[in-house]
Amino acid sequence: MSDFQLYLRVGFDHITDPNGYDHILFVMALCAVYQLKDWKKLLILVTAFTVGHSITLALATLKIVRFNTDLIEFLIPITILFTCLLNFFRKTEIKKDNLRYFFAVFFGLIHGLGFSNYLTALLGQAENITLPLFAFNVGLEIGQLAIVAATLLISFILISFLKVKSREWNLILSGAVAGVALTLVADKWIF
User: Fold this and answer.
1) Domain that holds residue 51
2) Which residues cross the membrane (predicted)?
3) Of these four, 18, 93, 106, 116, which has the most CB atoms within 10 Å of its CB?
């Protein structure tokens, strides 16, 4: 297995790992207001998130940016909760998503700092981190797209076959994710 394949796999496994479910929850929260027909908008949104976390992941891994790990671990569930709150007040028809794109990039910056500790530990004292960093980010993106696909498939089944209204699905998914995010915030409140 090449280094690229190794770090691609590590990135994919990191985002899809059930033990790191905060990132899975964030991607699910991004998906809550979308249906299968909106896949292009959602792809752009998730890629905007990837751009954000790729920037800070690179900066932190290169030790250009330093941060308080406890603060980042506290802010990650806040980003999830905030995304769910945006979903609660979303109109049924999605017109312009500029604000959502902005928040996706901004929250990606925060999540990238969360990913960086893991990647930095893996890289150790490696001299050239460009290829591993790129491969890790590609793996993260592929993992996120797998989460998006699964969430959109569930949404499609519920809305198309079980006749759940899209607004109700948004509230159910966003409410469940917000509930878990609130527990994560409470767990990390004291840092």
Assistant:
1) 3-188
2) 43-65, 71-89, 101-122, 142-162, 169-186
3) 116
